Amino acid sequence: MNFMNMFKWLTYIVVLIGALNWGLIGAFDFDLISFLFGEMSTISRVVYSIVGLCAIGYLIFSIRDEMEYSHYSC
User: Fold this and answer.
1) How far apart are CA 8 and CA 44, in angstroms?
2) Residue 70 in contact with residue 64, Cβ under 8 Å?
3) How far apart are CA 64 and CA 49, in angstroms?
4) Distance between CA atoms of 27 and 4, rounded to whole angstroms?
5) With contact defined as beta carbons under 8 Å apart, do 43 and 36 qualify?
6) What's the predicted TM-score (pTM) here?
7) pLDDT by residue for the chain (74 residues), tens digit each?
8) C-alpha–C-alpha distance, residues 68 and 50, integer Å
């Protein structure tokens, strides 16, 4: 497994964890990140920032993969 493939999977996992946290907030009004690290502490802000950056990275990977696969299907 090459580095970019591992990085893509890592971004997917982090985005999935972020999505689960938002699901907990919506369903039960329970913020797991705030529970674990404190409400808007420095660590919480870093975790939220990492999730956001991983979401952007995963979006870029998805667009790149879609363009690459559509090129081969023609």
Assistant:
1) 23
2) no
3) 23
4) 34
5) no
6) 0.81
7) 688 788 889 999 999 999 999 999 999 999 999 999 999 999 999 999 999 999 999 999 889 888 877 766 65
8) 26
